């Protein structure tokens, strides 16, 4: 296998892993946001967003460094810059909540206190890293960098603004999270019998033990990696005296790196954070129960929709059959009596004697007397009832000659 083939395999594996972790981490993140679990929700937002950005960038620029989307690179390069700081800040919020919950005099949080906690967590975990973005123009010599197989990245130089607004925050907040986590682990060990059933939740939908293991894993894995990454950045790049004119002169330029063939170790930091998050939340017992309940609700909704559709189809079929019966009734021909051409008369007796008037064959009227029983086609029951009514009315209707004779009696 050639080096190019190996690099291509690593690149496609990196892209697949980024898409997978972005999808798997977004599921519990949405659940945390909906249930006002702000601290793990902030961590899930950073993990999902970072992995999704890396996946899209690696897909678009896996073979070249053509500047296809400058605005996209302006945005995603800054997000990739502050990802590590945001993730560590979220871990600090989780550890702080655990320290409060494990403290001896902890009280249950009411709605107003919990709302203040949520607002503070969102402001600290998301607002503070975003606040650092405008200061990146002080130490970025280029607008952004396009790297093959990685896509858009932030270009920076080691100067004093770089340390002040970028490098020092991850180690600082990581140390704070480590101290909180150590306190939580000690309290959990001392109260292990009382916490056998997770104890009071203090408004948390996630068991406190799982949050503790998450903080412990994140501080023992992600924090040392961030320290190592900071050390590599300081050692690999030389310190440059800061001159504002040098940065303002090249702020519109773009840096291209077409020689990189596969992702490096520092590009996998988002994958490591996503893997830790997915391990503790996506396939946990609570989330599996939520998946089962969601699938059952989805299946019930599908069944209700199909049942309503079936009833609608049945009602439409009944409506069509009813209209068809009415159409057959309208097209049914009413049988008529045929009368001979010869004129039949009777001798005129008294004025009250019945007289019958016969017309020619061209005139077709209903018989005034009992009509001849003529064969007629088979019709529906409704047609037969209507025909019986018409026949009864025709039988009771007086003939024209009888009515004329009654009005003008003849004299002998």
From TrEMBL:
Q: Which keywords has UniProt assigned to this entry?
A: G-protein coupled receptor, Membrane, Pheromone response, Receptor, Transducer, Transmembrane, Transmembrane helix
* Segments of skewed composition (Basic and acidic residues): 352-366
| One cellular component term from this protein's GO annotations in UniProt | plasma membrane
Subcellular locations according to the entry: Membrane
Which InterPro entries does the UniProt record give?
GPCR_STE3
User: Under the GO molecular function aspect, what terms does this record hold?
Assistant: mating-type factor pheromone receptor activity
Region Disordered, residue ranges: 348-380
GO biological-process terms attached to the record: pheromone-dependent signal transduction involved in conjugation with cellular fusion
Q: How does it sit in the membrane?
A: Multi-pass membrane protein
Please list every transmembrane segment annotated in the UniProt record, as residue ranges.
Answer: 12-34, 81-101, 122-140, 160-186, 211-229, 264-283
State whether keyword Membrane applies.
yes
Similarity comment: family membership = Belongs to the G-protein coupled receptor 4 family.
Protein name as catalogued: Uncharacterized protein
Source species of the chain: Cronartium quercuum f. sp. fusiforme G11
């Amino acid at each position: 296998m050639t080096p190019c083939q190996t690099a291509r395999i690593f690149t496609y594996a990196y892209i697949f892993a980024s898409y997978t972790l972005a999808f798997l981490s977004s599921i519990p993140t949405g659940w945390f946001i909906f249930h006002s679990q702000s601290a793990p929700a902030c961590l899930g937002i950073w993990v999902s967003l970072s992995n999704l950005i890396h996946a899209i960038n690696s897909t678009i620029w896996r073979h070249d460094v053509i500047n296809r989307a400058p605005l996209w690179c302006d945005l995603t390069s800054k997000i990739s810059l502050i990802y590590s700081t945001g993730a560590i800040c979220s871990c600090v919020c989780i550890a702080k909540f655990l320290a409060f919950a494990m403290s001896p005099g902890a009280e249950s949080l009411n709605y107003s206190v919990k709302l203040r906690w949520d607002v503070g967590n969102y402001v600290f975990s998301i607002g503070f890293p975003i606040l650092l973005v405008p200061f990146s123009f002080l130490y970025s010599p280029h607008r952004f960098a396009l790297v093959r197989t990685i896509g858009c990245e932030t270009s920076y130089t080691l100067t004093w603004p770089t340390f002040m607004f970028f490098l020092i925050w991850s180690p600082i907040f990581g140390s704070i999270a480590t101290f909180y986590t150590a306190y939580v682990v000690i309290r959990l060990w001392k109260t292990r019998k009382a916490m056998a059933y997770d104890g009071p939740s203090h408004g948390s939908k996630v068991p406190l033990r799982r949050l503790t293991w998450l903080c412990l894993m994140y501080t023992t894995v992600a924090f040392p990696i961030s320290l190592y990454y900071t050390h590599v950045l300081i050692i690999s790049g030389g310190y440059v005296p800061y001159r504002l004119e040098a940065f303002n002169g090249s702020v519109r330029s773009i840096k291209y790196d077409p020689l990189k063939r596969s992702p490096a170790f520092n590009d996998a930091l988002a994958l490591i954070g996503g893997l830790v998050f997915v391990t503790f939340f996506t396939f946990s017992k609570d989330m599996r129960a939520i998946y089962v309940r969601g699938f059952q609700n989805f299946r019930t909704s599908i069944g209700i929709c199909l049942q309503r559709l079936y009833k609608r189809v049945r009602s439409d079929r009944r409506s069509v059959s009813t209209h068809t019966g009415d159409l057959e009734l309208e097209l049914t021909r009413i049988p008529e009596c045929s009368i001979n051409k010869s004129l039949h008369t009777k001798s005129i007796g008294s004025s009250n004697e019945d007289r019958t008037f016969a017309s020619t064959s061209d005139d077709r009227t209903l018989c005034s007397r009992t009509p001849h029983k003529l064969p007629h086609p088979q019709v529906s029951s409704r047609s037969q009832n209507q025909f019986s009514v018409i026949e009864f009315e025709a039988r009771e209707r007086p003939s024209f000659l009888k009515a004329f004779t009654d009005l003008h009696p003849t004299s002998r």
